[in-house]
Amino acid sequence: MSIPSSLQREGGIFVWSMMQAYKREVGKDPALRALARLIGFGIDDEEGDLAEALRYLDQIADPSESDRQLQADFRERLQKI
Fold first, then answer.
1. Could you tell me which of 29, 44, 36, 27 has the C-alpha nearest to residue 74?
2. Taking the domains of the chain in order of start, what are their residue ranges?
3. CB distance 32 to 59 below 8 Å
4. pTM
5. How far apart are CA 19 and CA 25, in angstroms?
């Protein structure tokens, strides 16, 4: 796996490493939550990928109220694009 050029700055490699670790834990709610937030809000002032973030949020087995609110927010933002 190569590190995207957008993340090859200070802190970016650390975030990329965290995302890879969370991806190895996909299927576990805490990892899904973390990935959804990292991807949905973006990294290093880049816009996030709302559709990809929603795919992770939708996999959460036991969504919290915060998860459901974030899903609604991301869906609303996607409809405006």
1. 36
2. 13-79
3. yes
4. 0.79
5. 10
| Digit-coded pLDDT (tens) for 38-58 | 899 886 666 789 999 999 999
- Look at the block and give the residue holding tokens 């299927």: 27
What string of DSSP letters covers 9-39? STTHHHHHHHHHHHHHTTTSHHHHHHHHHHH
Residue identified by tokens 């939550």 is 33
Q: How far apart are CA 22 and CA 5, in angstroms?
A: 20
**How many angstroms separate the CA atoms of 19 and 63, rounded?**
20
Report the half-sphere exposure of 72 (CA within 13 A, side-chain side).
7
Angle (CA) 30-65-24 rounded to 5° is 15
**Which residues neighbour 45 within 8 Å (Cβ) at sequence distance 6 or greater?**
none
**What's the pLDDT score for residue 42?**
80
